[in-house]
């Protein structure tokens, strides 16, 4: 089991899956995604028990996922509940609606958050933000 998976956080399983996808990319595929997205996302996720975990998705330099704050400063920090992240990542929750309804809070480059659909599509081709 990956060190990214955290018991009590369903979102961590999706983030670990994303990490597997990144690891499986060829250098060209990774470079293409990095060129498309060019950002570092930090997710602050709160589970149903009120505990928080932080995950960083670097799609700017390395194309990798880490638990906790990454080595590179995040361009966008997104805060949301565990269940909302799962719905967002699987395409069941629209990112703009989540933001407008207050389910998703963004600090930093909000326009960069719009590019997250490219990242989530790599684990779920039907995902649409």
TrEMBL record:
Gene3D superfamilies attached to this UniProt entry: SCP2 sterol-binding domain
Signal peptide per UniProt:
none
Top-level taxon in the UniProt lineage:
Eukaryota
Give the InterPro entries listed for this entry. SCP2_sterol-bd_dom, SCP2_sterol-bd_dom_sf
Q: Which Pfam families match?
A: SCP2
Which Gene Ontology terms of cellular component type are present? cytosol
State the name under which the record lists this protein: SCP2 domain-containing protein
Query: What range(s) does the SCP2 domain occupy?
Result: 18-121
């Amino acid at each position: 089991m990956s060190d990214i998976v955290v018991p009590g956080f369903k979102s961590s399983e999706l983030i670990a899956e994303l990490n597997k996808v990144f690891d499986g990319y060829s250098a060209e595929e990774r470079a293409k995604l990095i060129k498309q997205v060019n950002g570092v996302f930090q997710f602050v996720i709160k589970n149903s028990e009120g505990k928080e975990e932080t995950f960083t998705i670097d799609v700017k330099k390395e194309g990798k996922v880490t638990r906790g704050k990454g080595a590179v400063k995040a361009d966008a920090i997104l805060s949301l509940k565990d269940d909302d992240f799962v719905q967002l990542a699987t395409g069941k929750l629209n990112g703009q609606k989540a933001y407008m309804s207050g389910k998703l809070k963004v600090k930093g480059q909000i326009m960069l958050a719009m590019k997250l659909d490219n990242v989530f599509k790599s684990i779920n081709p039907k995902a649409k933000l």
